[in-house]
Design brief:
Layout (H helix, E strand, L loop, with lengths): L1 H4 L45 E3 L1 H17 L9 H10 L8 E3 L2 E5 L7 H13 L26 H15 L6 H17 L6 H19 L9 H5 L3 H8 L8 H12 L7 H19 L33 E3 L3 E4 L2 H13 L5 H13 L5 H22 L7 H7 L5 E5 L1 E4 L2 E4 L1 H4 L8 E5 L5 E13 L5 E10 L6 E4 L2 E5 L3 E2 L5 E3 L4 E7 L7 E6 L48 E4 L4 H5 L24 E3 L30
Length: 649
């Protein structure tokens, strides 16, 4: 602030007052003279967070640089010819220096770039990914037909690749030391973009980011480290001062700019078109507030709206859904129906007293296997118990309790898809034919362990008095230590081993959605579990105070960021697969190249800061947005990109 007070009001450039030349700076003046007009505000000097770094563009630019360098993209890579000359000028990493081969100049392949075979593997991996409905755009159309390049990525595409795909895809394609460093950087962005940001996590991340960048400096060339990489160091502090990122980033603003851009009908008069379109839209919006009998933007249901269900007293009868697709009546065998009905009864907290009473009677009888007897006999015992109480007109016997004790119909309704709590689920048999993936399910166990599976059938069991319960029949994967491995916040599971074949049912309201992506590092039978954070879905109890739901309301504490610089060995950065890139320039160009003091920050062939970098720093405003986690698009995205975050996500 003392330096700010010393700034004088001067006329920039060549001015007649200075004799037509640039004014010389005095000895008492600073090397900057621009004073923002916001400092004229009386409260501006007291604001701790005066500027807001846009995480959306920072993440996109870092993803472009990182992915472009790994893929060897000639337009995005930071591993350029001038970058190799910088290494030679600085006298470091001699194995990566340009060298002469006859009359050609050769560039050795670096360890931090994919080989041609690995580049095609990564492209096929990206092409194979299927996201849940409304989560993200289909990235397969961004992969070149010959599986050699990934092009046309929007801001949200980079967001998804950075946090979901790149940590998984690079593990088996580059050196483990390099891949672990990339995963650590991606984990930080997972922490930063969480809906709930823990201050302790951001304080730790601020120290660990320094180590991550040091590890990156030992891997990538100096040209990789532009201003975007440096701005990452300031993001944890801004998250502490400004709160969660999704309330401050540019996604909602860019999406609104796209809306204004659509108003243009006359390219010669864009401003007038926007003004006219805005006035018309505002007038129509005002009029539509008075229309109750037609569908408008204010009463239009969401894409995955499951409708309004009648309130029930019993928890299991609250397990309803909005069915989709053709309904079919299926006969259920007695063995399967008994297992399904026992699961319904066992998950009814209102009859817990009867469950405990039956267990006590089995213990008094001296039953050798009380658990098995409880599963086989409780339904009949409960039926006789409730009907005996109903004959004496017991007040606790309600219509719902009587219907629950009367067992279900032998014919059940089956659906190929449904919507539950704003989430779309599709059976696996139908899901394999779609371009989206909505068959992955998970459910927490009694000891906070997670169970993962695939949805096989959606069954609606009918009871007396028009009551019903919707159950999901799932194929559950074995989740022991051999078949489920968690490393660097990445959970991989073997999908060939099935478990709980006699306990396949869950209530539709208990299901939480996940999706699976291939794990190239472990083989074709392994999948990486990706949790879904649905847009506009928050886990809030009736009193408004609740613990953070680990899946539907992710927290920065869910991602463990741990780095250790001491574990980084000295690696040879030259790839040993014999891949060498010839350069058209003759070898004499190396000696004739004029090196600048900061040549690695001012390459002639590469612009270190993308065209969007000037949008990165913006003045902080008091406006807030009700957008979700990361389910918005940039101004250039088309209709195919109107999708989630969770994102979240």
């Amino acid at each position: 602030m003392d330096q700010l007070r010393r700034v004088k009001t001067t006329i920039p450039g060549k001015h007649p007052n200075y004799g037509g030349v640039k004014r010389k700076r005095g000895d008492d003046e600073l090397n900057w003279r621009k004073k923002s007009i916001f400092y004229e505000l009386p409260y501006w000097a007291e604001i701790e967070l005066k500027h807001n770094l846009d995480v959306m563009h920072i993440e996109k630019n870092i993803c472009d640089s990182l992915l472009g360098t790994l893929m060897g993209d000639p337009h995005k890579s930071k591993d350029t010819d001038n970058a190799r000359r910088d290494l030679q000028n600085l006298g470091i990493r001699s194995e990566l220096h340009l060298y002469e081969d006859g009359n050609k100049l050769m560039k050795p392949a670096a360890e931090y770039t994919f080989s041609e075979a690995n580049r095609r593997k990564f492209c096929r991996f990206v092409r194979s990914v299927k996201f849940p409905d409304g989560f993200a755009a289909n990235l397969w159309k961004n992969v070149a037909q010959n599986d050699s390049r990934i092009v046309g990525l929007k801001s949200h595409d980079c967001h998804v690749i950075m946090q979901r795909l790149l940590p998984v895809g690079c593990r088996s394609l580059v050196n483990k030391t390099i891949s672990s460093t990339i995963i650590e950087l991606c984990t930080f962005f997972n922490q930063l973009c969480a809906r709930t940001v823990n201050v302790t996590d951001m304080v730790k991340a601020q120290d660990q980011l320094v180590i991550i960048l040091c590890k990156l400096e030992r891997i990538f060339p100096p040209a990789f480290f532009d201003i975007m990489i440096h701005l990452v160091l300031h993001l944890p502090e801004e998250a502490i001062l400004g709160g969660p990122v999704f309330m401050r980033w540019m996604y909602p603003f860019e999406r609104y700019l796209k809306r204004l851009k659509d108003y243009v009908r006359n390219a010669a008069k864009p401003e007038g078109s926007i003004s006219e379109g805005y006035v018309v839209d505002e007038a129509l919006t005002f009029c539509s507030r008075y229309f109750d009998d037609i569908e408008t933007r204010f009463n239009r249901p969401d894409r995955n709206d499951d409708g309004i269900h009648r309130t029930r007293r019993l928890f299991v009868f609250e397990s309803q859904c909005k069915p989709m697709g053709k309904q079919s009546q299926v006969y259920v065998e007695k063995n399967m129906r008994d297992r399904a009905e026992f699961y319904i009864l066992n998950n009814s907290p209102e009859i817990e007293t009867y469950l405990n009473q039956h267990k006590q009677e089995l213990q008094l009888r001296g039953c050798l296997n009380p658990d098995k007897a409880h599963r086989n006999e409780f339904a009949d015992w409960f039926f006789e118990k409730i009907y005996a109480m109903n004959r004496v007109h017991a007040p606790e016997v309600t219509h719902e309790l009587l219907s629950l004790a009367s067992k279900s119909n032998v014919f059940v309704s089956s659906y190929p898809a449904c919507i539950v709590n704003g989430v779309r689920f599709v059976t696996y048999a139908r899901d394999v034919r779609l371009k989206t993936q909505n068959s992955g399910v998970s459910v927490p166990g009694t000891e906070n362990e997670m169970f993962y599976g695939q949805l096989q059938e959606i069954l609606e069991f009918s009871y007396l008095n028009d009551f019903s319960v919707v159950l999901f029949k799932c194929k559950w994967f074995r989740c022991d230590s051999r078949r489920m491995v968690t490393e660097n916040n990445i959970t991989s599971i073997n999908i060939t081993s099935e478990s709980y074949k006699d306990d396949q049912f869950i209530l539709a309201s208990q299901a939480q959605q996940v999706f699976y992506v291939e794990d190239p590092s472990r083989g074709p039978n392994w999948r990486v579990v990706q949790h879904v954070n649905h847009r506009s879905i928050w886990d809030i109890t009736e009193d408004g105070m609740s613990d953070i739901d680990l899946l539907q309301d992710n927290s920065s504490s869910n991602f463990t960021l741990f780095v250790d610089l001491g574990n980084l060995p000295q690696i040879n950065l030259q790839r040993n697969d014999g891949d060498v890139i010839p350069i058209v320039q003759p070898f004499t160009a190396v000696s004739q190249h004029v090196y600048e003091t900061v040549s690695f920050l001012n390459d002639d062939d590469e612009d270190d800061v993308s065209e969007e970098d000037d949008e990165t720093v913006e003045e902080s405003a008091d406006e807030e947005t009700d957008e979700g986690n990361d389910d918005v698009d940039t101004e250039e995205d088309d209709d195919d990109h109107s999708y989630h975050t969770s994102d979240s996500d």
